[in-house]
Design brief:
heterodimer; A: 626 residues; Rossmann fold; six-stranded parallel β-sheet; five-stranded parallel β-sheet; 25 helices; 10% strand; globular; B: 202 residues; 15% strand; 4Fe-4S (chain B)
Chain lengths: 626, 202
């Protein structure tokens, strides 16, 4: 069916445009078609003024002020918007934190029951243990690991009111005092999420400020708890990311190979799939089926986890997942959790591609179910790879079209790798900031949103900011966008302002640093915290800002909130469903400054946003007297 | 004469008018059972997207004179004497589509209805919920609309309100002149929508 939109209007990436055209030609429905079919999208939903938390409703508030001003129970627009926002944070924090829990469980299973996950990074384990106040000298690695696991499990389950172990260990005293004063220090990662569900159920909390405060608490449990735990435990189990060259975009798929795309968020299984894809027996089997070998690549955050640790190529970010299948060259797309479109099964039906769901949390009707179990990780991974290999003979050659587009990218800037690149401490970076060679740092967070031209906001904002000598660090779909655009190459520094360019050239780093998946936003917090400690100030005093420029998920709401609650001015390039309450908007964009030292700022135009973020950074510099 | 007047600037595209219309014209008149009826009721009002993602709830205007009445070769379209609503006698409709050609608003669609004994499609346009109106109720779409984008009443009274707004607008200084005073948050939301509509063309 001819569309009334052009692929060029939907993505700035040529490989993506090429696959959208292929999908159109072959009459395959994609996310852009479905957005069109959803128009008009409900205004109440977009404004956040519908409540369906009990079945006296759903209730809607008239945003014009003439119709109903209250829901059946009496809840106002302010209450409803604040409750809905808090629930979004709860869902986002839950997703990240459950991810973290799964990694802790994998390590627990390895230590207690012999699951095949040896500790790869003992140095990191010891450094995490030290931060948590666990003795490391003259102790067995296993014993240290057991104590670290215990501390993590406590954070998910302890019942006292003290701040969680990880936030206590990782955040500086000034920040912790701010949280204490505001009453938002997280007590237990799970509990803060549960408390949001309790507060927002029929007839509990009606107050916008206390609802938002609880949202902040849960988000801090995510940023300084669940997400941080996920990152640190993954580094311990799978290795801390190191700087190295990688490849990105749909062009990483290979015509004569068995292509396996590993998609989702949790690396506990995908790590094993990457291993299994290198199994000589399975490669031999692939050759028997007429392939040259096995090409395992990543997609979305699972892809980034593999990219930063193992240099695995990444086939794309969120909006490219259907298009990877549209190439006709994917034998299996292996999915775990989060950001996986249910439509993949439908797109796969047009080809020989098998969608293999692996998480006990996520079952896709129409997919092949090969559920994961940590203790049998190796066997299951091999079974998955074998399933893909055996599917190679079903590939229809005339349906294959892999776009040429792929870019090289440097990735893997963990805090540890960044420090190493800087010669062991943050001082060179801090000196450059103090002297004004670099004006400040902006952390950009992933997500694509189909309402935004794919990758356009990410790339435009990044380009605008580096021009102003602002160093960019970031994660998630933003990182994949930059990788695809060539921004993660040291030579891209020629597009930066003179100051940033000089620093990048002397260190051999790109002007924007890939810190990993969206759960790895915690790395940005750790970096900000280190800098605040070094300079003897709070995070909110630093010339830093954050941005989720194509924000889409509930996870992004949680990330944005913990950025703000960590004292960081945070830009959103898409509008969250809060505009139905001017009071909530005011709390988020103004009052939050007084409470936690950071606030939200919504601006869909990335050029204007870059200007505001730059001005904010200059204001912070002035206040610091630098 | 009573009519439904549309204030498109108040429409936020929730489509509740469509759903309520379908319910009102179903056999069981219930959201949850209507979808299991043999002929599933369809909305006769259509919310569609225009410029800048703005929406317009488009429905039969019950014109007088009505082009559809004038052109109908079988006299299947008639005007109800007491309400002046334009109605369709389904048994006389031959699905020729002349009414749809003549309709200036493009709101005439053809579909099956349980009200015709034969299994064929007929002109299923809006009947202004005449049954409900005769019971003293508002048309279902109007009742469903929580932003007053659809208002039912004496047409001249409704227009009078609009006239007052316009008077207000033209007497304001040019920089604050607006056809309809929108709340701040709605202005912001509309501007975001506008940006969204334009951002892909960058």
């Amino acid at each position: 069916m001819p569309k009334n939109w052009k692929p060029e209007d939907k993505s700035i990436d040529q490989a993506t445009q090429e696959m959208i055209k292929k999908a159109e030609k072959e009459n395959i429905e994609t996310i852009w078609d479905r957005l069109e079919a959803q128009q008009p999208q409900c205004g109440y939903g977009q404004l956040g003024i519908c409540c369906k938390n009990c079945f006296q409703g759903p209730c809607r508030i008239d945003p014009f002020g003439d119709g109903p001003k209250k829901g059946v129970c009496g809840a106002t627009a302010d209450t409803i918007v604040a409750r809905n926002l808090a629930r979004m944070i709860a869902a986002g924090a839950a997703a990240h934190s459950d991810h973290g829990r799964h990694v802790v469980i994998a390590m627990y299973e390895a230590i207690e029951h012999g699951a095949p996950y040896p500790i790869k990074d003992e140095k990191k384990l010891k450094s995490v243990a030290k931060k948590l106040g666990i003795a490391v000298d003259n102790r067995e690695i296993k014993e240290i690991a057991k104590d670290v696991i215990k501390k993590a499990f406590e954070d998910f389950g302890k019942q006292d009111d003290s701040i969680i172990n990880f936030a206590d260990a990782y955040a500086n005293d000034k920040r912790k005092q701010t949280w204490k004063d505001a009453g938002v220090a997280p007590r237990n990662i799970d509990r803060e999420v549960v408390e949001i569900m309790h507060r927002t159920t029929m007839g509990v909390d009606h107050d916008t400020v206390s609802l938002i405060a609880q949202g902040i608490k849960a988000s801090l449990g995510d940023g300084w708890g669940g997400s941080l735990i996920a990152t640190e435990f993954q580094d311990i189990l799978f290795g801390t990311p190191q700087i190295g060259k990688r490849e990105a975009n749909l062009g990483v798929l290979k015509e004569d190979y068995v292509n396996i795309v590993v998609h989702g968020h949790e690396p506990v299984l995908s790590e094993k799939i990457i291993e299994a894809a290198q199994d000589p027996e399975l490669i031999e089997l692939a050759k028997k089926y007429g392939a040259k070998g096995i090409n395992a690549v990543g997609m979305c955050c699972t892809g980034l986890e593999l990219l930063v640790r193992h240099g695995t190529p990444i086939a794309g970010n969120y909006l490219q997942q259907e298009l990877a299948i549209v190439t006709g060259a994917v034998e299996a797309m292996v999915v775990d959790v989060q950001c996986i479109m249910p439509s993949l099964v439908d797109v796969a039906r047009c080809f020989h591609t098998k969608i293999i769901d692996t998480s006990s949390l996520a079952t896709f009707p129409g997919a092949t179910h090969i559920k994961f179990d940590e203790r049998k990780a190796d066997e299951i991974a091999k079974e998955i790879v074998r399933t893909a290999v055996e599917n190679f003979s079903n590939r229809e050659k005339n349906k294959v079209q892999i776009p040429k587009g792929k870019s090289e990218a440097i990735g893997g800037f963990s805090v540890e790798a960044t420090l190493e690149a800087l010669g062991g401490s943050l001082q060179p970076l801090e000196d450059a900031i103090k002297s004004g060679t670099i004006r400040g740092i902006v952390g950009i967070v992933g997500c694509n949103n189909v309402k935004v031209k794919h990758n356009y906001n990410h790339i435009t904002l990044t380009n605008e900011l580096i021009k102003n000598d602002i160093l960019i660090i970031g994660t998630g779909c933003w990182a994949t966008a930059c990788a695809e655009y060539g921004i993660f190459l040291p030579e891209y520094a020629k597009n930066a302002g003179d100051g940033l360019r000089t620093i990048c050239e002397s260190l051999g780093i790109p002007p924007a640093l890939n810190m990993g998946s969206c759960v790895d936003c915690s790395r940005m917090l750790v970096l900000a915290d280190l800098m605040a400690r070094d300079l003897g100030v709070d995070i909110s005093d630093l010339p830093l800002a954050g941005s989720a420029t194509e924000a889409m998920t509930e996870k992004a709401v949680s990330i944005g909130t913990y950025f703000v609650a960590s004292g960081i001015f945070t830009h959103l390039g898409t509008t969250p469903p809060v505009l139905g309450s001017q009071e909530v908007v005011k709390v988020l964009t103004e009052n939050a400054f007084d409470i936690v030292g950071g606030a939200f700022y919504v601006e869909p135009d990335p050029v204007k946003a870059a200007k505001t973020l730059t001005e904010y950074i200059e204001k912070k510099r002035k206040a610091l007297g630098i | 004469m009573k009519a439904v007047l549309i204030f498109p600037e108040r429409c936020i595209g929730c489509k509740h008018c469509e759903l309520s219309c379908a319910i009102a014209h179903s056999q069981t008149k219930s959201l949850f059972s209507m979808f299991s009826e043999k002929i599933i009721s369809k909305p006769r009002i259509h919310v569609e997207v225009g410029e800048d993602l703005l929406t317009f709830p488009n429905k039969c205007r019950h014109c007088n004179p009505a082009p559809c009445i004038e052109i109908c070769p079988t006299n299947a379209i008639v005007r109800d004497e007491s309400t002046e609503f334009v109605l369709v006698e389904y048994s006389k409709c031959i699905t020729c589509g002349m009414c749809a050609i003549a309709c200036p608003f493009g709101i005439i669609t053809f579909d099956k209805t349980p009200n015709v004994m034969t299994n064929r499609s007929v002109n299923l346009k809006c009947d202004n919920c005449i049954e409900r109106v005769e019971e003293g109720k508002e048309p279902a779409c109007v009742e469903a609309c929580k932003t007053n984008a659809l208002v039912f009443g004496e047409i001249n009274n409704l227009i009078g309100k609009k006239r007052k707004n316009i008077t207000k607008t033209v007497t304001k200084s040019p920089d604050e002149a607006e056809e309809f005073e929108l709340p701040e948050n709605i202005k912001l939301w509309r501007s975001m929508l506008k940006h969204e509509a334009h951002s892909n063309k960058n």
